[in-house]
Amino acid sequence: MRYALIPFGFVFYLWYLVIFIPITILFAITVMILAPVWPKKYSRAMRVFPKAWGWIGIRIVFCPVYVYGREKIHDQPGIIISNHQSLFDILAGLGFYPVDFLFLAKKEVFQIPLVGTAMRKLGYISVNRSNARQASRSLEIVEEQVRQNNRVLIYPEGTRSKDARKLLPFKAGAFQVAEKGKFPIFPIVLYGTQETRPMHSNVLLFPHRIAIQVLDAITVENELHPANEGSRLSEKEKLAGIRAVVEKAYLQLADNKGLKAANV
């Protein structure tokens, strides 16, 4: 990063907070008020609020967003996996992923005043990564939600990667759920958020192109799927294979700056 841009990034970050914090509070309170009286059979319609929140959160940073692979969206429940490199990933996901979903997030996010309560009202799932029993229960809830015809987004890296050219190793949780329920896995690759909110600083923000690409679904028939009993691959090799597919697409998006879809 050129040092001359740092003052701009800091001022832009402060401007963003002044605009976005009140918007976040407004959306959270709206969800908290409406959720108790909202008809359960229309509960999915409540997700229009986080979708609008995510859309606004990206647009007020003046980030152009390109979405590739919309035709690969399947109208069926399953596990969505995505790479994770920025706090802006969830804003981009909520606002621009061409699919409706719940998501799994670390318990600390649910401790944010108002926001955490609104997330619970919307059905988002908390995970305590430091407690194996509680983490296992969270995965059971993920399975229950998919069986109820939902899609659940999980970041299999578990945390944000500090290396913009490399994905972290994938953790097994999302794939254990997919294996147990024989659910399809929907990989969605995200590029550009790490340039919008750099990992090395919490107080810098920059407008940057964001690219989202939906990859081919990984169904039980695919040899990489953990529930494919006929595959000659070990569980470790399947996990590494899925990661390789996602990383290849991500690196292609990064190399062309998100201006065209990755060829995977």
UniProtKB/TrEMBL annotation:
Alphabetical GO biological process terms: phosphatidic acid biosynthetic process
Domain of life according to the entry: Bacteria
Family annotation (InterPro entries): AGP_acyltrans (IPR004552), Plipid/glycerol_acylTrfase (IPR002123)
SMART domains the record matches: PlsC
Keywords: Acyltransferase, Cell inner membrane, Cell membrane, Lipid biosynthesis, Lipid metabolism, Membrane, Phospholipid biosynthesis, Phospholipid metabolism, Transferase, Transmembrane, Transmembrane helix
A GO molecular-function annotation: 1-acylglycerol-3-phosphate O-acyltransferase activity
Record-annotated Phospholipid/glycerol acyltransferase domain positions: 78-193
CDD domains: LPLAT_AGPAT-like (cd07989)
Pfam families noted in UniProt: Acyltransferase
Pathway this chain belongs to: Phospholipid metabolism; CDP-diacylglycerol biosynthesis; CDP-diacylglycerol from sn-glycerol 3-phosphate: step 2/3; Lipid metabolism
EC number, as in UniProt: 2.3.1.51
Catalytic activity: a 1-acyl-sn-glycero-3-phosphate + an acyl-CoA = a 1,2-diacyl-sn-glycero-3-phosphate + CoA
Membrane topology reported for the UniProt record: Peripheral membrane protein
Compartments (UniProt record): Cell inner membrane
CC terms in the record's Gene Ontology section: plasma membrane
Keyword Membrane listed: yes
Primary localization: membrane
Transmembrane segments: 12-36
Domain notes: The HXXXXD motif is essential for acyltransferase activity and may constitute the binding site for the phosphate moiety of the glycerol-3-phosphate.
Free-text function comment from the UniProt entry: Converts lysophosphatidic acid (LPA) into phosphatidic acid by incorporating acyl moiety at the 2 position.
Family note: Belongs to the 1-acyl-sn-glycerol-3-phosphate acyltransferase family.
Protein name per its UniProtKB record: 1-acyl-sn-glycerol-3-phosphate acyltransferase
